[in-house]
Amino acid sequence: MKIPMLDLVRQYHQLKAEIDHAVLSVLESGSYIMGPQVKDFEDRLAEFLGGQHCIGVASGSDALLLSLHAMGIGAGDRVIVPSFTFFATAGSVVRMGATPVFVDVEPSTYNMDMEKTAQLMESDRSIKAVIPVHIFGLPVDMARMMELSSNYGVKVIEDACQAINADVFMAGNSRPSKAGTIGSTGCFSFFPSKNLNAYGDAGAIVTNDENLAEQLRILRVHGAKPKYYHGMAGYNSRLDTIQAAVLNVKLNYLNEWTDKRRKVAAVYDRYFQQTGLLEALKWPEVRDGHVFHQYVVECSRRDELAAFLQKRGIATAIYYPVPLHLQPCFQQLGGMAKDCPIAEEVCQRVLALPIDPELRAADIEYIVGNIKDFYA
Fold first, then answer.
1. Comparing C-alpha atoms, which of 293, 299, 341, 333 is closest to residue 133?
2. Looking at the chain, which terminus has fewer C-beta neighbours within 10 angstroms, N or C?
3. What DSSP character marks residue 349?
């Protein structure tokens, strides 16, 4: 068998007629930059998530960068970020001239450790913002996060790049909120491997703050309003019209794909429960709200297992091999081994398994069976 992490070609062929029509409509319109499909997608995504404003940008990384800029985060400011996440979370902070302050993660969720985050805010009043990352699609405890934000006057930028359509349960609300709609802004990526995916780089920012939304719209077009009149130095970070057209098609299927990912995770969970590998392997809990952008296990002899599975035709990936506080480009910040011990240990043990929404029970049985064979 050959089992990829995610079969994007199969997904395209399932939607080929709709995708081709959407793309050709853009090509035949001649409206290639900020065409009507962009505004249509922004309006539909805002409604889908329950946010008031959506601003399409060029990537998830730019969504983080523009959010920081719009909130006035810059030189001399300090921003809390988890050490266990994709580089862009901290990279955007550095690009604004601010300083990332790395915090360890919880061993059960891989999300940022809330108690350590609270301790940082209490001890360092120069911290101006925090970027909670809903890692692998599992929401952060946003009720606690917003409580800390209120107590310490710290702005919250949600990194929801891996968590579109994830449910966040807030006390007092009869219905769950969506990840990315609770902080000052929520940042989304539509990179091809994401749960809602484009055919290139694409991103969006969601906010309920009208003034922030207006500033973000200006920032993405070189800081100009009206055109050629620049009140600020902005960016060239527009959502491409063709990508918006593709996303408009795929948004119709996001609920279905989310349900399928959750079902795939539940089947994994059932098969892993039968293996008896508790000492060698830790698999994620199937929790309410989780959208399983990745299905990540924690295992001993990780690299040997990955090589073994590759020989059996099973793709895997390592997210992430190096914690951010030990990345070479952040050496000047003084990060040392043991600063974030959970993140450091996790980086030596995590392995992402295939999480295609179309995975069959037989595929998952084959994957789990081969993992059991390896440890046997």
1. 293
2. C
3. T
Distance in angstroms (rounded) separating the CA atoms of residues 41 and 246: 9
Read off the pLDDT band of 21 (50, 70, 90). very high
User: Which amino acid, 134?
Assistant: H
Residue pair 19/249 in contact (Cβ under 8 Å)? The answer is yes
Write a three-state SS string for 22-55. Answer: HHHHHHHHCCCCCCHHHHHHHHHHHHHHCCCEEE
Q: Which residues make Cβ contacts (< 8 Å) with residue 324, sequence separation at least 6?
A: 81, 82, 83, 84, 85, 87, 89, 90, 100, 102, 330, 343
The CA-atom distances, in angstroms, between 286 and each of 95, 109, 136 are 36, 11, 12
What is the rounded CA–CA span in Å between residue 343 and residue 107? 8
Q: Are 74 and 309 in contact (CB under 8 A)?
A: no
Say whether pLDDT at 285 is over 90: no
- If one counts every other C-beta atom within 10 angstroms of the C-beta of residue 208, the result is 17
pLDDT digit string, tens, across residues 79-92: 999 999 999 999 99
Quote the CA–CA distance of 291 and 161 in Å, as a whole number: 12
325 and 120 Cβ atoms separated by less than 8 Å: no
**For the ranges 13-22, 269-278, 284-293, the one whose mean pLDDT is highest:** 13-22
Q: In this structure, are residues 375 and 317 in contact, taking their beta carbons and an 8 Å threshold?
A: no
> CA triplet 83, 89, 90: central angle to 5 degrees?
65
Cβ pair 82, 89 in contact under 8 A: yes
Say how far apart CA 135 and CA 284 lie, in whole Å.
12
